[in-house]
C-alpha cells in the first residue's frame, strides 16, 4: 500500500544536535501508532536517495536541526512555500546536496508533495563528532512530537498512542540510547583539538 | 620556481586565487592557486578544512556494529564504508562468508558504483561542461537530429520531447528561480557546447534523476531498506526464500525479477545515454586536455568485486588491483595493505603530530593527534585564514603514500592499471573509446579522461551486475540458500586480540579500513579514504598530491570565475565528509573568489 504521509527525520547522528531530526522520528515510532498510510523514515543525510519517498506521498513532515539564529532549543514551525526558503537560509548540515536541493529537484520533476511541514529546532552544538543531543535540544523532542501529532490530526490522519513498527529507522547499535551510552570517554579518544574546532564565541 | 621530486614545477609568485568552499562536492574543501600573467595555474594548494577521526567514535564499541557507524560518515559512500567495515572485521576474525553473500554484496556494491557515477556525472559534474541556460536557444528539431546521430538506440529523441523539456526549463529560468542551476558562470567562454548539445545533456540530467531512483532499489531489496541498508558481519542479512510470497525481507522470485529489470534498464542507460553523452560532450572539448596530473605517473587501486567469496587474490578481482609508479606502465606492482612499509600516512604538512617529523605510520598504528598551527607566511588569523602557507602545515587531510609515492586513486587510476595489466574488458572499452574519438592513448591522462573512465566503468559495472545476478540465481536453483555464516558471531569464539583490514573500491577510489580488536571490543579503527589520497597535501619530501598536480599548467579564461578549477576537481568526484571533519562555519567568510 502506498504511504500518503512521510514523516522524515534528517541530519547526521554523528554530529551532536545534527541528530535531532532522526531522534524525533525514532521517538515518534516508540510513542505513537500510525496506520499504513504513514511512513516513518530516518533519512540521514541521503540527499537524492530520498526522492522516491517524496514521490509517493501527498504530505511531508520533516524534523530537522535548523540554524535560524535563535536561542538553542527553540522550535520553529514553517509550512508549504516557506519550507524551502527556511531550509536554504543557512547550511544545515555537512552535505552539499542539502535538503533544499532535494525539494528543488522534486519540484523540478513534478513530484514534490503538496503539503510541507518543517519542525525545526535550533541546535546548541554541532561540532562534536561522536556526541549526542545536548540537553536543551533533547528536551524539545517531546514538544516537537506533540506539535507533529497535532498537525497530522488536523489533516485528518489517525494517530494513536502506542508504537509503530518501522523498517526504515536506524540500526539498533546507533539508536540514541546505545549511541550515547557507548561513547568512548574523552580520555580514551580525543574529542577536540584546539580553538579551531572548539565552539566559536562561546 | 621549485621542482617537486614527483616531477612537477611549482611557482607561487603570481596572483593568488582562493576558492572556498569548492561547491558541488560532499564535505568542505578549499583550494588556492597562483596564476601567472597569462592566467595559467603555476601553483596549487588543496586543503581539507575539516578534521576527522573515526576512532573518536568507535573506540570501545562492538566490532559487529562498526558498519552502522561508518555508514553514517557521509551521505554518498554509505554502503561502501559498511562493506569495507564488515570485510575488516571478517578479516580480523577469520570469518568466511558464503557464496550467495559474495554475489549479493557485489550486486549492492556495483549498484552503488553505478548510482554514484551517474549522479556524479549528470548532477555534480555536467554543469562544468554543459550550460543549461544556453539550452534555451536550441532548436528542438536539430537537437533531435543530434540525439539520433549520437545514440540511434535511445528511444527518447523526438523534436516534441526536446521542446517539452525546453519549455520546462524556460519556465524555471524565466521565473528567476534557477534553483539547481543557480550557481553557474553561464556566460563564461570556457563553455563550448552548441545549444543543441546543451539541451540534449540537460534533458538527460532529468532522465538520470528518474533512473537513479530505480538503481538504488537493489539496496532496498538486498539490504532490507534504503537509505542506510543493513549489513552483517559473516554475510548478508537477507534470507532467501524463492517460493515465498511477500515475506518481509526475504529474497523471492518477484524481487529477483525486479533486480533483473533494474540491471537491464541501467545497462541500457549506460550504453545509450551516458557513454554517448561523454563522447559527444568530450568531442567539443577535445582540445581541452588539461588536468592529468598524477594519472600518468602514479596510480593505486586495491581492487574489488571478488569472483569467489573470501578470495582477494589480485587475479580473482573484477576491478583490478595494483600500483603504477614513475610513469612506468610496463610494471604493475601488487599491493599489500598489511605491509607496514607500503601504505603509510604522513603529517608534516597536515594539522596533526606524530611527535617527530618525517615519520610515516601504517594505519594499524595510526594516531590522530591534532596540532593546528599556521606557517610564518600564512595571511589572516587562526580562525580566519586569508592565505595558507603551504611550506608549513596547511590541511586537515593527512598525506597517505604508497612506498613513499603520492598516488591518484579512482576510476581513471583503476582503468590505467587495468589497461596496463591487459584486463580484457577494460582494454576493449578504452581502445574503442579512443578510436571513436580519434584520440591518442595519452589523452586519457586528463580531466576528460577521468570523466570518460567513470562512464566506461559504469557500463562495465552493469555487465558485472548481470554476471553476479546470473551466478546468484544459478546457485539458488542448485539449492544453496545460505546467506550468512554465524559460526563466529559470538565474541567468546574470538581470540583476545586480532587485527584486520577491509578493502574496497569506492566510486571515488581505493578505500581501506584497518581495525584492531581487543577483548571483543574495538581498540583502534582507521579509515584511509580515497579523497585522502587524491586531496593529500605535500609530504616531507615535497611531493604534491593528485588534486594539486592536476591543476598545474591549466589556463583560466577568467581567473575570477574558476570554472576550470571546479571542472578538474569535480572530475575526481571528491568527498571530503569522511576524509576530514568540520571546522567553524565561519569559514565561508574567507571566500576570496565567491564560488557559486
Question: Could you name the key traits of this structure?
Answer:
heterodimer; A: 202 residues; alpha/beta; Rossmann fold; 5-stranded mixed β-sheet; two-stranded antiparallel ribbon; 7 helices; B: 3-stranded antiparallel β-sheet; 3-stranded antiparallel β-sheet; 15 helices
Could you please say which CATH topology of chain B applies here? Cytochrome-c3 Hydrogenase, chain B
By helix and strand content of chain B, what is the structural category? alpha+beta
The greatest inter-chain interface is formed by: A-B, 50 and 61 residues
Question: pLDDT under 50 segments of chain A (min length 5)?
Answer: 88-96, 193-202
* Terminal Cα span of chain A: 50 Å
Describe the biggest sheet of chain B? 3 strands, antiparallel
Low-confidence stretches of chain B: 578-592
Strand order of the largest sheet of chain B: 3-4-5
CATH H-tier superfamily of chain B: Cytochrome-c3 Hydrogenase, chain B
CATH class of chain B: Mainly Alpha
CATH fold category name of chain A: Rossmann fold
Query: Radius of gyration of chain A, rounded?
Result: 17 Å
Q: Which oligomeric form is depicted? A: heterodimer
Quickly name the level 1 CATH class of chain A.
Alpha Beta
Number of helices of chain A: 7
Average of pLDDT of chain A: 83
Share in β-strands of chain A: 15-25%
CATH homologous group name of chain A: HybD-like
The helix-and-strand class of chain A reads alpha/beta
User: β content of chain B, as a range?
Assistant: 5-15%
Amino acid at each position: 500500500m502506498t504511504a500518503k504521509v512521510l514523516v522524515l527525520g534528517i541530519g547526521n547522528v554523528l554530529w551532536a544536535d545534527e541528530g535531532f531530526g532522526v531522534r524525533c522520528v525514532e521517538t515518534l515510532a516508540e510513542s505513537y501508532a500510525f496506520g499504513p498510510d504513514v511512513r516513518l523514515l530516518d533519512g540521514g543525510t541521503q540527499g537524492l536517495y530520498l526522492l522516491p519517498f517524496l514521490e509517493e506521498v501527498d504530505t511531508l513532515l520533516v524534523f530537522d536541526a535548523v540554524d535560524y539564529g535563535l536561542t538553542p532549543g527553540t522550535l520553529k514551525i514553517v509550512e508549504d512555500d516557506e519550507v524551502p526558503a527556511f531550509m536554504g537560509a543557512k547550511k544545515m548540515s555537512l552535505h552539499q546536496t542539502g535538503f533544499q536541493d532535494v525539494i528543488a529537484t522534486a519540484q523540478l520533476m513534478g513530484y514534490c508533495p503538496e503539503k510541507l511541514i518543517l519542525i525545526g529546532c535550533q541546535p546548541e552544538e554541532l561540532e562534536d563528532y561522536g556526541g549526542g543531543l545536548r540537553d536543551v535540544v533533547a528536551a524539545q523532542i517531546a514538544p516537537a512530537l506533540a506539535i507533529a501529532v497535532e498537525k497530522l490530526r488536523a489533516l485528518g490522519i489517525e494517530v494513536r498512542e502506542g508504537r509503530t513498527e518501522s523498517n526504515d529507522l536506524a540500526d539498533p547499535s546507533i539508536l540514541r540510547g546505545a549511541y550515547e551510552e557507548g561513547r568512548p570517554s574523552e580520555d580514551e579518544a580525543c574529542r577536540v583539538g584546539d580553538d579551531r574546532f572548539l565552539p566559536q564565541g562561546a | 620556481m621549485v621542482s617537486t621530486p614527483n616531477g612537477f614545477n611549482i611557482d607561487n609568485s603570481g596572483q593568488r586565487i582562493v576558492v572556498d568552499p569548492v561547491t558541488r562536492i560532499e564535505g568542505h574543501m578549499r583550494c588556492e592557486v597562483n596564476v601567472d600573467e597569462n592566467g595559467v595555474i603555476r601553483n596549487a594548494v588543496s586543503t581539507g578544512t575539516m578534521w576527522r577521526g573515526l576512532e573518536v567514535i568507535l573506540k570501545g564499541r562492538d566490532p559487529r556494529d562498526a558498519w552502522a557507524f561508518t555508514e553514517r560518515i557521509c551521505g554518498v559512500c554509505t554502503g561502501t564504508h559498511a562493506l569495507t567495515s564488515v570485510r575488516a572485521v571478517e578479516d580480523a576474525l577469520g570469518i568466511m562468508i558464503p557464496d550467495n553473500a559474495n554475489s549479493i554484496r557485489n550486486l549492492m556494491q556495483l549498484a552503488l558504483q553505478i548510482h554514484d557515477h551517474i549522479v556524479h556525472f549528470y548532477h555534480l559534474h555536467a554543469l562544468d561542461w554543459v550550460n543549461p541556460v544556453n539550452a534555451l536557444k536550441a532548436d528542438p528539431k536539430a537537437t533531435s537530429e543530434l540525439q539520433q546521430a549520437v545514440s540511434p538506440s535511445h528511444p527518447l529523441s523526438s523534436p516534441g520531447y526536446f521542446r517539452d523539456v525546453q519549455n520546462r526549463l524556460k519556465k524555471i529560468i524565466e521565473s528567476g528561480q534557477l534553483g539547481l542551476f543557480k550557481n553557474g558562470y553561464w556566460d563564461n567562454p570556457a563553455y563550448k557546447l552548441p545549444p543543441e548539445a546543451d539541451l540534449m545533456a540537460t534533458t538527460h540530467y532529468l532522465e538520470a534523476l528518474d533512473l537513479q531512483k530505480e538503481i538504488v532499489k537493489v539496496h532496498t531489496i538486498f539490504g532490507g531498506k534504503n537509505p542506510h541498508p543493513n549489513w552483517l558481519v559473516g554475510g548478508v542479512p537477507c534470507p532467501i526464500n524463492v517460493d515465498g510470497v511477500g515475506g518481509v525481507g526475504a529474497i523471492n522470485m518477484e524481487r529477483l525479477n525486479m533486480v533483473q529489470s533494474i540491471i537491464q534498464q541501467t545497462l541500457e542507460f549506460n550504453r545509450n545515454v551516458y557513454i554517448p553523452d561523454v563522447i559527444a560532450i568530450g568531442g567539443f572539448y577535445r582540445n581541452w586536455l588539461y588536468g592529468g596530473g598524477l594519472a600518468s605517473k602514479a596510480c593505486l587501486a586495491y581492487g574489488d568485486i571478488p569472483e569467489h567469496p573470501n578470495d582477494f587474490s589480485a587475479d580473482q578481482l573484477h576491478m583490478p588491483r595494483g600500483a603504477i609508479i614513475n610513469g612506468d606502465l610496463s610494471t604493475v606492482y601488487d599491493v599489500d595493505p598489511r605491509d607496514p612499509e607500503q601504505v603509510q600516512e604522513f603529517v608534516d604538512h597536515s594539522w596533526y603530530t606524530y611527535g617527530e617529523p618525517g615519520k610515516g605510520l601504517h594505519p594499524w598504528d595510526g594516531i590522530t593527534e591534532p596540532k593546528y598551527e599556521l606557517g610564518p607566511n600564512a595571511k589572516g588569523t587562526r580562525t580566519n585564514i586569508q592565505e595558507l602557507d603551504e611550506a608549513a602545515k596547511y590541511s586537515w587531510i593527512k598525506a597517505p603514500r604508497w612506498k613513499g609515492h603520492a598516488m591518484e586513486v579512482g576510476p581513471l587510476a583503476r582503468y590505467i592499471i587495468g589497461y596496463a595489466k591487459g584486463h580484457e574488458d577494460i582494454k576493449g572499452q578504452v581502445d574503442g573509446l579512443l578510436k571513436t574519438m580519434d584520440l591518442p592513448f595519452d589523452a586519457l591522462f586528463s580531466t576528460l579522461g577521468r570523466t570518460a573512465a567513470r562512464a566506461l566503468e559504469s557500463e562495465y559495472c552493469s555487465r558485472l551486475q548481470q554476471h553476479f545476478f546470473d551466478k546468484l540465481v544459478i546457485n539458488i536453483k542448485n539449492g544453496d540458500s545460505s546467506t550468512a555464516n554465524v559460526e563466529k558471531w559470538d565474541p567468546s569464539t574470538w581470540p583476545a586480540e586480532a587485527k584486520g583490514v577491509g578493502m574496497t573500491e569506492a566510486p571515488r577510489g581505493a578505500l581501506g579500513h584497518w581495525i584492531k580488536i581487543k577483548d571483543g571490543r574495538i581498540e583502534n579503527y582507521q579509515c584511509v579514504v580515497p579523497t585522502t589520497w587524491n586531496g593529500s597535501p605535500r609530504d616531507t619530501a615535497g611531493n604534491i598530491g593528485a588534486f594539486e598536480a592536476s591543476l598545474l599548467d591549466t589556463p583560466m579564461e577568467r581567473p575570477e570565475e574558476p570554472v576550470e578549477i571546479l571542472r578538474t576537481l569535480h572530475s575526481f568526484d571528491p568527498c571530503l565528509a569522511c576524509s576530514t571533519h568540520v571546522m567553524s562555519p565561519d569559514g565561508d567568510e574567507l571566500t576570496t573568489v565567491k564560488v557559486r
